[in-house]
Amino acid sequence: MNIYFACSITGGREFETIYQEIVAALTLDGHEIPTSHLVQSDVQENERLLTPNEVYNRDVDWIRKCDVLIAEVSVPSHGVGYEIAIALDLGKPVLCVHQADRKVSKMITGNPDSALSVLSYPKPDEAVSLIRAFLQST
């Protein structure tokens, strides 16, 4: 399955380890993740080499081509919210996961779109289990 993984870059990287664990597990499961580079520690340096227009066009193209979008939303991010909206507008299934003790925007938690699922995980290692279950149901 082609999975667009969305996570905070400029909004904060405090959950970078979780991002890495999710992408590593999904890659091990055989999924294609065009955004896998976003979980690397040097992502901000590498993304600076691209213009905003290049990033936008690349990411929208990847969203169009994906089967599903999975977003880790524990850290607020304008970009991730925008990516979620694009995917939903295209009719893609979207899963937003977040740590149970984190507040998530009501624009996400209040969205009634049937293609959107929002799940919390109490422990980081449980995020992968939630994602795998979601993928099996899609």
Explain what you see.
The protein is of the alpha/beta class and 138 residues long. The chain is 44% helix and 15% strand. It has a four-stranded parallel β-sheet, sandwiched between helices. The longest helix has 14 residues, at 52-65.
Topology of helices and strands:
Layout: E1 3-6, H1 16-28, H2 43-47, H3 52-65, E2 68-72, H4 78-89, E3 94-99, H5 106-109, E4 116-121, H6 125-137
Parallel strand pairs: 1-2, 2-3, 3-4
Helix pairs in contact: 1-6
Total helical elements: 6
How would you classify the helix and strand content by structural class? Answer: alpha/beta
User: Regions with pLDDT < 50 over 5+ consecutive residues?
Assistant: none
Compute the separation of the termini in Å: 10 Å
Shape: globular
**Percent helix range:** 40-55%
Q: For this entry, what is the oligomeric state of its chains?
A: single chain
Strand content: 15-25%
- Which CATH class is shown? Alpha Beta
Concise summary:
The protein is α/β, with parallel strands linked by helices and 138 residues long.
Key terms:
138 residues, alpha/beta, 4-stranded parallel β-sheet, 6 helices, 44% helix, 15% strand, globular
